[in-house]
Every structure is written in structure tokens, then in C-alpha cells.
């Protein structure tokens, strides 16, 4: 197969559209496999009708109705967002409950990684000192201290991988007693206890803020709490000194830790996609779904997320729920999110971006079908509300907004120690607190962003690699990165900010 | 007067409570001026009843009813938040409209500062290169580039004061077509055009984000737009190189600028308080109000803000509105904010913090009365909606949440080039884009935070300095800092993050 031959990809025998696979799209008149001639130019990733679809007729991809033809679409037509009317979202009642629970494959044994085991049994993939900030007010001081710790102290503690400030814009100037304020508060609480921080909670508070340290951590006494307004902090230099001295105690303990062999079942991986295109659901996400199935079979924990990107497939998820309780929790979370969006006078259709559309995704239904496949085929064994910590293994739905930074932040809170992020258009996104493996949906992106993309799933589109082979490769790469192999983002030292999800008002 | 003599401060002859001024409070039995004996220990800044107040009786401070006695409060009682029932907020109808317009004092002439005049007539107090980011996704790359520009390029451009990334967590993963999305978008648009950036708009976009560059800046073609997804950016190093090369063009132009004498009327100052205590309304804020009056008389622009901290004084503000249109705009903004809070099941009472209460402020009514005095006595000549740019001079109400970082961010968008921030409990808050003058309400804080507080308004409490003298000193310090005198925060290189106000949903 040469690069110039017209190539199209259909996802299911029931589909009446396929996407153009060629890097630069296909011109008018191109002859497609099956004998159809293109009636107009179609860009890469965009859909072409395989049969005559009359105005109002169903347009099917992934064997799902992704829309209705807004005009007659004779075979060979370009099918894009302007030519599709979007279906209504499925309701939240009358859904199939636990009707499609896949038999788990045979348990996978013998897979392990080198992790940092914590006193509470969790395992980190990195050994980082994280400084929890109760409020944005302290972040200028903490940033300054972190820079000095990195330069002056960290070189003496070679087993510590890094230091970071858990900075955020929450903590004061917010309606902290509003019902929904529980979300940002528990998010911060649980991020601080992420396994990658080795149980060394170090907290810097201002003193007068709404998010008082004992409100953030009601369950234990915070050791070595630094409070900038304390009388002992006579000025700026004293504050910096106090933070540095406190950090050093934690660094000493963290430095005594070493990696040890841990079974793959100790791994907790958060999956996400961003800057998606029509290949997301063809290459990267199904391969990631296969990798997810492997990790679940190995006894590990995998979470998928992004409320608006599963909303149109709610029936698939409730059917895959391991128990009716899980299905109910799923419906509850997605219904709450429906109401949240409605309060702002929008719905799940607010999700799609200009880049999604340029990449061939006509609407949120099509995007969701491609997003959801990253969850593989395993039964869904639990639901994690936003900001809560996962307390079980297997495949979990962590109910988060799809915003990359917010979803990543909430997966950190849920306890993920490794992040896999698929992208079609390309984003340099990563977080500092867990390694972020970047997967491209297309080889052209992987070639262009050669030092940002960790895995190229593009060969799945050409048939050079199967979904299973690619999924196996991803699974192995997860174990390698969990063991310490740096991601591209880690090598460059780049990362994004945390973004707390705060559905409550600011004041 | 020695430090040990009991000292209390009443704000108005109609008040039936006063606050204890002594640094460490006063013990039970202390004999107050006027002959009252304290019935119990009262901490500094906390209120004592001057007469017998029966249960249900009005408690007056600032000649305003700040609450009703929740129990009998015989003269000499400690009056705190647990002993006061809060009044309802004043309604938004039937308010006095433009009934209390103070005659302006004589015009002040001859005051000037050394500023950077821009092509559009505005004047900066600093000469900074700001990089606008359309979306959080790019911020890891931009941060990396900024560090390199600071180290490698900036030393060659000595007239440029610094470089900063206008980082935020907006731009994608948000409901960008929601009605209220206009607020964060125009905020970012207007911050990018703050006079301190010399008209050199430099923008880094990802490519696929919702906040497309031409949506952010619909009114002009963005020069030298950097888009990371562009084909020309072959990998990480190319992205960094592109940003650095683009930045250098802007640095060359900014470096040609020099300070020149500008009248005080070219100054645009944003006022704010945070970490307030009972002295805020006694020392720092009234002095700042006097400074504000001076700047208004000199033809300058002053904005005060913080919706929840003026809400209980809405009648004072509508009475001071220069025109009925201004009064209507005020009512409209505060009513919108009432509805915004109500949507989250809270009201303006959500504002107060543990620190406020520890500092003697019993509730939002009392806090608001002390906050509002920083607006001085001038007529209110305009209202700036959140995220909008001020387009007139005089005293303006910029309608923002009271959150320090959000208020500061919105005042930047409104065009403030200098920030004055009063604090009673102490916060190291400042922003990078304009100098932030920190004023303490108490001398004890100024002594403790000797290298963070720029001005100590404490001597007003002891009578060593008058409000007028302190206001005059603040006015002069504003001109000095506007001319280049660094604030403590600038000397340390510390600053807080921008925080966009986004009342619309995330997705």
C-alpha cells in the first residue's frame, strides 16, 4: 500500500460513513476502495458517505447514529459538522443496567514495575516532595522557596525526583460553605496524599484564609505546618527559611526511599484524551483500551473520565457496570453534570473545539464514541466522584469535566500515579505530579512533534500495526515509565498548572 | 500615651461599640476611657459595648447598624460574631440616587510621575513584555521559553523591566458560548492591552483551542502570532526558538522606551484590601480614601471594587453616583452578583474569613463599612463591568469579586497600572503586571513583616499621624512607585498567579 492510494477507514459493518486516512486528504474525483468516487475534496480524518443518505437520514459511525443528514448526501459526499443535525442526548432513565458485562480475560501475571512502596500500601511511580498550599495567597512565597530548595537542597538528596508546589487559585475569596465547595476541598486534600509524594504531607498556610489547614485535613494533625502569619516568621527571609528547613526534614525521609519490584496490580493509571481528531477513536484510543484491558487483567487500576465525552454513550456504560450500584452511581454523576451545565445555559455539545472539527469530528456524539473506546471492554467496577480518592481496583469511571487540566488534576486526586494522554491535533499538556505519556493518533503529528510524543499510534491506521500490538506496546511502556523511564515532558521539565474544579461561587 | 493604657477607638458619635486598640487586647476589669470596666477579656480589634445593649438591640459602628444583639450586652461586654445577628442586605430598589454628591476639592496641580507613555495615550508605570496565552495547554512551553528569555535575552535589553506569561486555566475545556463566557474572554483581552505592556501584544496559541486568537482579539490582526501546532514548529526546540525569536522583536521595541514626566492624571490605580481586620476601616482604608480623593482631584483614575464588600453599603454608593446612569449601572452589577451567589446557594455573608473574625470583624456588614471607606468621598463617576476596560477618569467602581487574585486580575484588565493593597492580618499577595503597594492596618504587622509591608498605617490608630497625613504620604508613595521605586514584592521577585473570573461552566 503506497501513501498515495486513497485510504478510508470504516469502524463497523453497519456504518454508512468512513473517514479519509490519507495525510493530506483526498481530492474530488478520487476513487475509493469499493468503487465510490469523491464528489468533492475531503480533508484527512473527515467523513465520506458510502451510500446515498437522504436528507433526514441516519448517519452511522461506530455503529451508532452520530447525526441526521441536514441535506441529501449522495455516496462520495463530504460529511461534516455543517451537514449533520445532532441527535438528542440519551435520557438517564430506562437504561440497560449491567446487561453487557464482558467475561474478564485470563488473569495476567508476571508483569511488574519498580515503584516506591508507601507505608499505607500504595505505590508511587515517582518520589517527589509536594508542598500543599491552603490558599493562593502563599504561592509567591512558596514558589520562591521552591526555586531555592531546588537549587540549594535537592542536589544533596539524589533519590528525590523533584519538588513541586501544589499551587491553585482556591482557598479564600470563595464560598467555602456552599454545597459544592466540597469538590475543590477534597480534591486538594486527596492530591496532597497522592502516592507519588510518599506520604510526606508538607503544608504551607497563610493563617487567615477560609481553607484552614484543619478544614483541609480534618482527619490528622498536620506535621510541621508552616503558617506565614505566625509570630515566629519575622519577615520574608524568615518565611523562606522556615519553608526550607521544613522541606529538608521531608527530603531526608524521602531520600531514604528506593524503588522495589511491585506487581502491575499496584499501578493506578489515569487515561485522558485532548485535542482529539477523527483518528482518536481509530488508533490511539482503541489501542489504549486494549492496554487498559491488559492492566485490569493484571489486577491494576485504570480510570477513564470526561463526563461530556461519555454522556452520549451512557447506555454503553450502564450496560458495562459491574453491579447495579455502579450503574446508579454513573447515572447520578452524569445527571449532576447535566444540571451543572444547564445552570450555565449550555449542554454537552459545548465540549467540541475548533480543532476537533478541523480534525473531522462533527459533533460531541462522534467525539464521545471515539473517546469512550479508551476504556476497553472490561466491566466498570466503580465510580469516583470528582475530587474523591479511588478505593478499589479494576476499571473505574472517574467523573470529571473533560478539560485536560481539570481532568488530570482530578485523576491525581483520585490517586493516579501515571497518566496516559492521547492527542490528535497535538498538545504539550502534562502535569508535574505524575508522568504523562503522550500518544499521537497520527504518524504525521508524531513525526512533527518528535520530541514531545512518546508513542505513535498512527501505524494502526495504515494496518502496519494491529490495535492489539499497539495496546501491548502501551502496556509495556506504562510499566517502563512507572519504573522511572522519563517521558518527553519530564526530560524537558515542562508541565501545566493544576486546575481545581470549583462549581461553587467565588466571593 | 503609653502602650499599656487601655485604648479604644469609636468611629462615630452615634456608635454604641468601640474597638480595643491595644496590641495584645485588654484584660477583664480594664478601665476604659469614659469609665467603663471590661466585663471580660477583649482581644485587639474586637468590639466592646459602650452602653447597655439589650438583646435584640441595634449594634452600631460607623454609624451603621452592623447587627442586633443576640443576647444582653451590658456596657463593657465583648461584642463578637457569636453575639450579633446579622441584618438583611439592603434591597436594590428605592435607593437614594445621586443625592450625596460631594463637591470636589480644588483641582490639584503640579503632581507628576515618570511613566512610559504609549502610542494610544495611556501611560505605564512599568515596561514589561507580557506573553498572552490563549489556552492553558501552552503554558508549560511558554514558561520554559520565558525562563530562557529572562536568562539569555533580557540582559541585552536593560530598559525592559521584565517578562511574564499571562498564564491562566481558561481557553479550552470551557463552555465558550455560554452567556457568561464573555467575562473571562474580555478579561484576558484587556489584560493583554494593559498600559504596562507598552502596546506590544505577543500571543502564543496552541491551534485547536476554543479560545481562538481571532476570538480573543477580534478587532485587529495579531502580529507575529505563534501557534504551536503550525507545521513550521518541528518539535519542542523549534517551539522554544519561535517564541524566543518573536519575543526578541518585541524586546527591541520595548527597549527603546524611556520614562518621561507625566501628570498624575495619567495614573490609574486599583485599590483593594485583603486579610482585613477591624483596623482596616480605622487606619489603612480611610487613609487610602484620602489618597484616592487627592488622586481624583489631580485628575487621575482610581478604582475600588469587591462586590460583597460594598453590597451592604449600596445606598451609600448610589447616593454618591455622579449621575443616575452610574447609580443604575451600580445596581445592575450588584444585582447580577446577588443572583450569581444565589445560584450557588450562598449570599454576601460567604465573604468573611476566619482571619477577619479573629481580627474583630463580626460579619460582612461591619467588614463592608470598613472596606468601602477606601473609596474616599469623591463622586463615583463610572462603573466597570468585570473584565471590561475603564474608559474614563475619576473614581470608578470596578465590579469584581472580593477574592484578592480575581479582583487584582480584573483591575489589571480594567487598565490599572498600579495597585494599592491594605491588609490587617497580612498577606504576601501581589501581581507581576503592576507594582503592588502593601499597606498594613497595624504597626505590629508592619514591624513583623518589615520587608513585605511598604507602608504602615498603624500610627493613625494611636493618633501619632492623622488620616490626612497618612493619605498624603500614600499619594506621594503612589507617584514614587509609579516612577520606578520598587515595592517590596518587586524587590523579592514574588507574585501571585492571575485568576480569571469565569462564572460559566467548564466542560
Oligomeric status of the shown chains? homodimer
How many DSSP-defined strands of chain A? 21
General form of chain A: globular
Strand order in the sheet with the most strands of chain A: 17-18-16-15-19-20-21
Helix content of chain A: 25-40%
Radius of gyration of chain A equals: 24 Å
Describe this structure in words.
- The structure is a homodimer of 507-residue chains.
- The first copy, chain A, has 14 helices and 21 strands.
- Chain A has 507 residues and is α/β, with parallel strands linked by helices.
- Chain A folds into three domains: 1-88, Archaeosine Trna-guanine Transglycosylase, Chain: A, domain 4 (Roll), CATH 2.30.130.110; 114-255; 267-492.
- In chain A, the strands form five sheets. In chain A, strands 17-18-16-15-19-20-21 form a seven-stranded parallel β-sheet, sandwiched between helices.
- The radius of gyration of chain A is 24 Å and the shape is globular.
- At the A-B interface, helix 1, helix 4, helix 7, helix 8 and helix 10 of A face helix 1, helix 4, helix 7, helix 8 and helix 10 of B.
Amino acid at each position: 500500500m503506497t501513501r498515495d492510494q486513497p485510504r478510508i477507514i470504516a469502524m463497523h459493518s453497519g456504518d454508512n460513513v468512513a473517514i479519509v486516512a490519507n495525510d493530506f486528504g483526498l481530492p474530488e474525483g478520487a476513487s475509493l476502495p469499493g468503487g465510490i468516487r469523491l464528489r468533492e475534496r475531503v480533508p484527512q480524518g473527515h467523513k465520506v458517505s458510502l451510500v446515498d443518505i437522504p436528507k433526514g437520514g441516519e448517519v452511522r459511525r461506530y455503529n451508532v447514529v452520530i447525526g441526521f443528514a441536514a441535506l441529501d448526501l449522495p455516496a462520495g459526499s463530504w460529511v461534516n459538522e455543517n451537514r449533520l443535525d445532532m441527535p438528542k442526548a440519551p435520557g438517564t432513565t430506562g437504561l440497560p443496567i449491567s446487561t453487557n458485562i464482558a467475561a474478564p480475560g485470563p488473569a495476567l501475571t508476571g508483569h511488574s514495575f519498580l515503584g516506591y512502596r508507601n507505608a499505607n500500601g500504595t505505590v508511587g511511580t515517582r518520589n517527589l516532595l509536594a508542598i500543599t498550599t491552603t490558599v493562593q495567597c502563599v504561592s509567591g512565597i512558596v514558589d520562591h522557596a521552591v526555586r531555592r530548595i531546588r537549587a540549594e537542597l535537592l542536589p544533596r538528596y539524589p533519590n528525590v525526583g523533584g519538588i513541586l508546589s501544589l499551587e491553585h487559585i482556591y482557598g479564600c475569596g470563595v464560598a467555602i460553605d456552599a454545597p459544592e465547595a466540597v469538590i475543590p476541598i477534597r480534591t486538594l486534600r486527596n492530591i496532597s496524599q497522592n502516592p507519588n509524594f510518599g506520604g510526606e504531607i508538607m503544608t504551607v498556610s497563610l493563617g487567615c484564609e477560609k481553607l484552614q489547614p484543619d478544614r483541609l485535613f480534618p482527619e490528622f494533625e498536620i506535621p510541621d505546618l508552616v503558617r506565614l502569619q505566625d509570630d515566629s516568621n519575622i519577615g520574608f527571609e524568615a518565611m523562606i527559611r522556615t519553608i526550607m528547613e521544613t522541606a529538608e526534614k521531608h527530603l531526608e525521609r524521602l531520600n531514604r526511599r528506593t524503588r522495589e519490584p511491585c506487581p502491575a496490580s499496584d499501578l493506578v493509571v489515569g487515561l485522558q484524551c485532548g485535542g482529539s481528531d477523527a483518528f482518536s477513536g481509530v488508533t490511539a484510543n482503541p489501542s489504549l483500551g486494549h492496554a487498559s484491558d491488559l492492566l485490569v487483567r493484571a489486577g491494576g487500576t485504570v480510570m477513564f473520565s470526561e463526563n461530556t465525552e461519555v454522556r452520549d454513550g451512557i447506555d454503553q456504560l450502564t450496560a458495562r457496570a459491574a453491579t447495579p450500584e455502579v450503574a446508579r452511581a454513573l447515572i447520578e454523576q452524569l445527571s449532576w453534570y447535566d444540571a451543572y451545565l444547564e445552570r450555565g445555559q449550555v449542554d454537552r455539545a459545548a465540549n467540541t473545539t475548533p480543532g476537533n472539527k478541523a480534525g473531522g469530528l462533527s459533533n460531541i456524539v462522534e467525539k464521545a464514541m471515539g473517546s469512550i473506546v479508551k476504556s476497553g471492554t472490561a466491566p466498570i467496577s466503580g465510580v469516583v466522584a470528582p475530587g474523591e480518592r479511588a478505593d478499589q481496583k479494576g476499571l473505574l469511571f472517574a467523573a470529571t469535566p473533560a478539560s485536560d487540566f481539570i481532568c488530570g488534576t482530578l485523576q491525581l486526586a483520585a490517586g493516579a500515579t501515571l497518566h496516559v494522554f492521547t492527542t490528535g491535533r497535538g498538545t504539550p499538556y502534562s502535569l508535574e505530579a505524575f508522568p504523562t505519556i503522550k500518544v499521537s493518533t497520527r504518524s504525521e503529528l508524531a513525526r512533527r512533534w518528535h520530541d514531545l510524543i512518546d508513542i505513535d499510534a498512527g501505524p494502526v491506521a495504515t494496518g502496519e500495526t494491529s490495535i492489539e500490538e499497539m495496546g501491548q506496546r502501551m502496556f509495556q511502556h506504562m510499566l517502563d515509565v512507572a519504573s522511572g523511564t522519563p517521558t518527553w515532558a519530564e526530560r524537558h521539565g515542562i508541565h501545566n498548572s493544576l486546575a481545581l474544579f470549583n462549581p461553587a461561587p467565588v466571593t
